[in-house]
Amino acid sequence: MRVKADFILSLADASARLSQVGGKGASLARLAAAGLPVPPGFHITTAAYCRFVAEYGLQEQILAAVSTATSDQPATLEEASSQIGKLFAQHAMPDDIAEAIRQAYAGLGEGDVPVAVRSSATAEDLPEMSFAGQQETYLNIRGGEAVLDAVKRCWASLWTARAIAYRIKNNIDQSTVTLAVVVQEMVNAEAAGILFTVNPINGRRDEMVINAAWGLGEAIVGGLVSPDTIIAEKTTGKIKKLDVTEKTVITVLTESGTEEKPLDDTRHKSQVLKETQVVELASIARRIEDFYGSPQDIEWCHANGNFYIVQSRPITALPEPPLEWKSSYPQSLLMRGSSMDLLPDVVSPLFATLGMSVITKAYERVYAEVMGLGEEDVPVFEVLNGYVYLCFIKGNRAAYYAWLHARTAGKMFAFGKVLALEAQAKCATIVSKWQQMDLDKVGTPELLAGARELFEISGEFLTACVARPIPLANFSEMEFSLFYNTLIKRKEDPAATTFLLGLENVPLRAEKSLFDLAQWIKTRSELADYLARASAEQVWAELQSDPVPAPLDGEFATRFMAHLAEFGHFTYDIDFMSPVLADFPIPMLDTLKVYLAGQGNDPCTRQQAQEMQSKQAEEAICQRVGTLHRKGFQKLLRLAQEYAVDRENAIANIGLPYPQLRRLLRELGQRLTTGGAIAEPEDIYWLEAKDVDALVAVLETGKPLSNHAANVETRKAEWQRARRVVPPAVLPEGSWLSKMMAPKKSLPNTLKGKGTSAGKVTAPACVLRGPEDFGQMRPGGVLVAVTTTPAWTPLFAMASAVVTDIGGPLSHSSIVAREYGIPAVMGTGVATRRICTGQMIMVDGNAGTVTLKV
Predict the structure, then answer these.
(1) Shortest CA distance to 219 belongs to which of 242, 193, 244, 255?
(2) HEC sequence for 110-172
(3) CB 804 within 8 A of CB 827
């Protein structure tokens, strides 16, 4: 006869292994050994199960029955389970195992001690999968023979239909699983429940969630009762939120088991746990979570003034915890502001640390020279969860900043003009220098210095834009519109925006250049036929090959590359991780194909018609109004037109240094890849500035580079996570400004925004987060984006309407939509998250609504 120790272990035996006592048993053994309040008991090891199966030669029969089961056919699962259950039921417990169990049970106390007999599988309560509820538990078992019977039933429950299906679904080899059994003294619980050491609803790691009901915990586990729900602070156990429910059922012990009884006394509407008890339970839960080092799903019960833990397993599926939006500047207001148009997305780590420091220094120069502010008073940028915010009010100084900006506005505009001219001159010199440079002959430190030098010019362009053309264009258009709408406009007169259509600017010149190229291609039938058939991606790949194959070689390649040389600096956004049109001209090529197919409109004809419309409208107004109003109207209109052109040109030219900047960063990334620091050159954007500085320094010494692959993958995951959320427009949330700027409430299938270009269209949506999605744009579709920049303009030739998350009447998206005469709704807040590509939507640019068709 085998010795008892093969089959039985004390519940608190610290040597108990998963392979011996299963997942549940191993967890309870560790908790008991650590001194946590676990009811006493013992393990019946997997050796006992294996001995029983081997004694009667059951393994082959079990696997044969399971082999006929499939997870998508419940009847086959039930049949296999039934066959296996009969195998266990028809065989007696071997004497040596039975004797060992009887002795262990007798050791729990005199008489028929009530116990819980719980299954504990070897593939159970693991960090990656819980297997919760797959095997059976039997409560209030009394007497040795009853325990033996319950153990056999637990063994058979390794092969319930749901357990077989679960293992099939998770690709677990059925031949490898075994079962242990945990026998514990039964706690006659006055209350019981479940505790999660993190909030399973929102993922908050600083909250615990407790479900509590009267009696045994089976009513909760079985879904028979709606328990109280308590949200408590993890660190203190203090109740943050309490939901007391009406509890109609209670599970209680009987002479030989348990039963559910109606709960009709005062407890059915009363709170189960007092706050002092919640604090005590939370303290135990913190110890368990600290002990395991991971979030836990804990089953607890309370009897005679004490808490007991009857199970703890890892939480296998948790939502990501919510992102924190807390500024490091107290009593300040942060705003996405104009940064949303130029940096609408989560920025790369390299831009957040290198790019933003350059921009901040450029801003500090402006505020110091124009307003006389010291560094401690200068509004600064802050990157929170990858989104860029401007701290436009530092401390509690809103009135002071408003007065200072008003007093120095003229000086600021003048300084912006000087800064733009400086940047323009420096840009031409520095870009030309690097265009002629053979990068193979440039040292790595010089490459990094050159990248910084090139971005400093972009930082100056950006600062000049924010200081002069952007605010001047906005103010002048608002001033003109106010004057016109208040003093001149009649019901039948055109909208104020009509007078600002058809203006010549750099993005429009790029559009004309592309259209002219399409007209030239039409005169070359072989080339036109090829471009009509080939995808934009294929054409671009062949244009980059050496030599360029026919029919793309020769004059077409020369013309297209000349177009890219002039307009390829347009940025999708100013994070230098994002490609410029020169790197990713797919939208240009797709638009070229649209023009070749006879779709889209001629930008020259469109501009001429708009110029004529604007001129005729102006003449009609001037003939009708008096001299004073006419002079005011014309003066304000000329300023609005002049500054509107300046704004579009300035935004387009921010990217002038970018083709060379990205060329240098690509080369630098290649050297870091060769040195083993990163997996591929593009991964340089996932490094921080300090990482790059350190790697460049080591590279110069010839020593091996540290590998940053793990950091890169972590940062990519963090970037993707942040991209899934909608960042608050104003911080702190709940401030007076955030309430004022809160989006309007919408109906369930309607998004509300600002109608910025009139008209109504119903068409399928094309949701584009960035260049990587541009292939989803289809002629006649609604362009749905976070926002757009001049680099997006080619897509407007295909769009029937435009919808954005952010922006207003003066944003680039609105201006181009009006030029194209298509409806636009800006500032919906959530369009890119609520709308799916291919979904039919109705865009009403008059009402400022987007209706989702269901």
Answers:
(1) 193
(2) CCCCCEEEEEEECCCCECCECCCCCCCEEEEECCHHHHHHHHHHHHHHHHCHHHHHHHHHCCC
(3) yes
Residue 402 structure tokens? 């408003």
Element at 307 (helix H, strand E): strand 306-314
Q: pLDDT-derived band of residue 838, with 50, 70 and 90 as boundaries?
A: very high
Site of tokens 């004057």: 483
Single-letter code of the amino acid located at 447: L
| Domains of the chain and CATH, by start | 1-186 (3.30.1490.20), 188-322 (3.30.470.20), 333-472+656-723 (no CATH), 473-653 (no CATH), 743-852 (3.50.30.10)
- Of residues 365 and 219, the one with the higher pLDDT is 365
Token readout for 188 is 């006659």
Peptide bond into 732 cis (omega under 30): yes
What's at 115, amino acid-wise? V
232 pLDDT above the threshold of 60: yes
Q: Pick left, alpha or beta for residue 395 (phi over 0 → left; psi -120 to 50 → alpha; otherwise beta).
A: left
CB 309 within 8 A of CB 298: yes
Q: Residue 353 has what DSSP assignment?
A: I
3-state secondary structure 361-413: HHHHHHHHHHHCCCCCCCCCEEEECCEEEEEEECCCCHHHHHHHHHHCHHHHH
Task: Write the DSSP symbol of residue 579.
Answer: P
- Range with the poorest average pLDDT among 236-250, 268-282, 328-342, 403-417: 328-342
Radius of gyration of the chain (CA): 36
Q: Per residue in 166-218, pLDDT tens?
A: 888 888 888 888 999 999 999 999 999 999 999 988 888 999 999 999 998 87
Query: How much is the average pLDDT of 350-363?
Result: 91
- Per-residue pLDDT reduced to its tens digit, 377-429: 676 788 999 999 987 666 666 677 777 778 888 888 888 888 888 888 899 99
